């Protein structure tokens, strides 16, 4: 195994489907769903669902940068959801479902900003991209029953 292990953190709506999409990518070592970006220490799912803590549902991705570049993860992130929606994805509404890239170093920040700007200019979306790009805050793992939720049920996505 490479010694070039890195972390990436993404919020793109409900974390179950986002985790599954990243989990199966070659070069991804581990995924964890959880909460980031809020003001409450060690929040629970119930806390976050109340939309009062400021946390986003996120997926923390541990990856081998020798096998999959960070750029590929950011590109996947933008394919997984509608980044023009503010504080929602489909039927899920609230700040916990916001579109956010939490970067772990300046290189990740630059890559995320460049890909976001390129997509904004591409005309692919009719509205501007609302994704925020912020420094990675504390990550709080979600409860065990949320981890690999879809995989445990033999599902590849939560969309019909």
Report on the structure:
The chain is globular and about 35 Å long. The chain is α+β, with helices and mostly antiparallel strands. The strands form two sheets. It has a six-stranded mixed sheet with strand order 7-6-1-3-2-8, covered by helices on one side. It has a two-stranded antiparallel sheet with strand order 4-5. The chain has one domain (5-152): Peptide methionine sulphoxide reductase MsrA (Peptide Methionine Sulfoxide Reductase, Chain A), CATH 3.30.1060. It has helices at residues 15-23, 45-49, 70-80, 106-122, 149-152; strands at residues 5-12, 28-36, 56-64, 88-89, 92-93, 99-103, 132-135, 139-141. α3 (70-80) crosses α4 (106-122).
Outline? globular
How many distinct helices? 5
Q: What distance separates the N and C termini?
A: 37 Å
Question: What number of structural domains do the residues give?
Answer: 1
Order of helices and strands: EHEHEHEEEHEEH
| CATH fold name | Peptide Methionine Sulfoxide Reductase, Chain A
Write the layout of secondary structure elements.
Layout: E1 5-12, H1 15-23, E2 28-36, H2 45-49, E3 56-64, H3 70-80, E4 88-89, E5 92-93, E6 99-103, H4 106-122, E7 132-135, E8 139-141, H5 149-152
Parallel strand pairs: 6-7
Antiparallel strand pairs: 1-3, 1-6, 2-3, 2-8, 4-5
Helix pairs in contact: 3-4
Quick recap:
By secondary structure, the chain is an alpha+beta fold. 29% of the residues lie in helices and 26% in strands.
Main attributes of the structure:
6-stranded mixed β-sheet; 8 strands; globular
């Amino acid at each position: 195994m490479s010694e070039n292990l890195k972390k990436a953190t993404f919020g793109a709506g409900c974390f179950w489907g986002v985790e599954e999409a990243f989990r199966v990518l070659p070069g991804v070592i581990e995924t964890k769903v959880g909460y980031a970006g809020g003001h409450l220490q060690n929040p629970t799912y119930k806390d976050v669902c109340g939309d009062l803590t400021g946390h986003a549902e996120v997926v923390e991705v541990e990856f081998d940068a020798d096998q999959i570049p960070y750029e590929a993860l950011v590109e996947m992130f933008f394919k997984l959801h509608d980044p023009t929606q503010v504080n929602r994805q489909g039927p899920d509404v609230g700040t916990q479902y916001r579109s956010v890239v939490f970067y772990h170093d300046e290189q990740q920040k630059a890559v995320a900003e460049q890909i976001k700007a390129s997509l904004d200019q591409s005309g692919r979306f009719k509205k501007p991209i609302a994704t925020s790009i912020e420094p990675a805050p504390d990550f709080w793992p979600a409860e065990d029953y949320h981890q690999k939720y879809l995989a445990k049920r033999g599902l590849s996505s939560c969309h019909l």
